[in-house]
Specification:
This protein is α/β, with parallel strands linked by helices and about 260 residues long. It has nine helices and seven strands; from the N terminus they run H-H-E-H-E-H-E-E-H-E-H-H-E-H-H-E. The chain is about 40% helix and about 20% strand. Strand 2, helix 4 and strand 3 form a beta-alpha-beta unit.
Length: about 260
Amino acid sequence: MTAKDDIGKIQERESKFWDRQIDSFAKDEKDLMVNEYNLNVLESFVFERLGDLKDKKVLDCGCGSGVLSTVLAKRGATVFSFDISHESINMTKKRAEANGVGNLVTPQVMSFEDLIYKDQYFDFAVGYFVLHHIDIDKGARELNRVLKKGGRAIFLENSSNNPFLTIARKFLTGRFGIPKHGSEDETPLSCKKIRQIGEVFSGDKKIYYKNFFFFRLIDEFIFKEKIKMITKLLKILDEVCYRVLPMLRKFGYLQIVEFNK
């Protein structure tokens, strides 16, 4: 089997997986609505790094249910969205239209490794939890190709830095009543893969750790967020670790990576 065949089969599995998942992101019309200013700490930081989006062309990579595309458009960007899942693209169209920005969002079914956009077309590229699903070499070259000189790509991703999370993901999720949310082909984004992407770009790369999301995973996967006192305690524990033990920050579940051209 060739490498191209491998990528094709992975893309097919990913497409089917996310087609099945997408309905859970919006049960009814009310769930489609988005407040462009109701952002968490990580999302706020991403938009801080993007700056003024008025009249900017922005590529939403792996748009999923279309929340990010909609926020980008409501903040003034002209958004081009792609995803490998047909149902995700349908959801993105529906969400953009429900929020009054359907004219600013152009969603298309597409793979990260084979983008159809023109060279140096976008001011920014963004994505939430997409890089760890793709073929890094091919995806990085395509991303670099479609970004303008001086453009910026910024992604919110999971991380493989913490060995305890890696072990738990491999041996615990999908067993003992612990849910497995990810697809069979995805793996957390590693420092090696970040370096691979950075080597393609002429500008600098940066990695940010803006929170410590670790103990709350225990609540999400084990206690299912059903015991308020435990939920509050584990959240506080994460926050204390972030403030008091900065050397631990890179071992949290989440990271933000940025590439400049």
